[in-house]
Amino acid sequence: MFLGRMGLYDEIEPTYDALQAIKKLPPDDPIIVLSLMRFRHDLADGRSDAAWRDYQDGIGPVLKEYGAKRVTNGIVALDLVGPKGQWDVVGAFWYPNPKVLWRFLSDERVLDLIKIRRKAADDVTMMILTDQTNAFAGG
């Protein structure tokens, strides 16, 4: 079951085509998913919202089960370059390969957690990066 069957395709969730594109990535190379999120404006402080806490508490164990890990996750403290106030939270998540990400996104628990995240999110941008961490001198 994917997001489309849940009726979740819209501007803050991956489209069917985007999900299908995961299958076209090099199948054995590690990837990083970069996630930027803005909290709903009608929540005075989304950082303390119960839905956001529930999502954060639930996603970690599932990531670990799939051999993925949260590389970093943080609240935006200062917009140094670019539009001010566009994002509230930035997270980076490492996956051993795109196949693992595909299975992760197919997991019913993750789909349930996405429903929870939607209660806190006003806008979400996600990008898949090739893992170039060790490609440069000094790692």
Q: Total number of β-strand segments?
A: 4
Largest sheet entry: 4 strands, antiparallel
**Integer count of domains:** 1
SSE pattern: HEHEEHHE
Q: What is the average per-residue confidence, as pLDDT, rounded to a whole number? A: 83
Named CATH topology = Alpha-Beta Plaits
Low-confidence region ranges: 1-9
What is the CATH architecture term? Answer: 2-Layer Sandwich
| Gyration radius, rounded | 15 Å
> So how many helices?
4
Helical percent range?
25-40%
Determine the strand fraction and express it as a percent band: 15-25%
Strand line-up across the major sheet: 2-3-1-4
What is the CATH domain class?
A: Alpha Beta
- The first-to-last residue Cα distance is 38 Å
Question: Judging from the principal axes of the Cα atoms, what is the shape?
Answer: globular
Derived structural class: alpha+beta
Q: Topology of this structure?
A:
Layout (H helix, E strand, L loop, with lengths): L15 H7 L8 E9 L10 H16 L3 E7 L13 E7 L2 H9 L1 H13 E10 L9
Antiparallel strand pairs: 1-3, 1-4, 2-3
Helix pairs in contact: 2-4
What characteristics describe this protein?
single chain, 139 residues, Alpha-Beta Plaits, 4-stranded antiparallel sheet, 4 helices, 4 strands, 24% strand, disordered N terminus
Explain this structure to me?
Helices cover 32% and strands 24% of the residues. Strands 2-3-1-4 form a four-stranded antiparallel sheet. It is built from four helices and four strands, in the order αβαββααβ. 15% of the residues are buried. The protein has a single domain, classed as Alpha-Beta Plaits (2-Layer Sandwich), CATH 3.30.70.
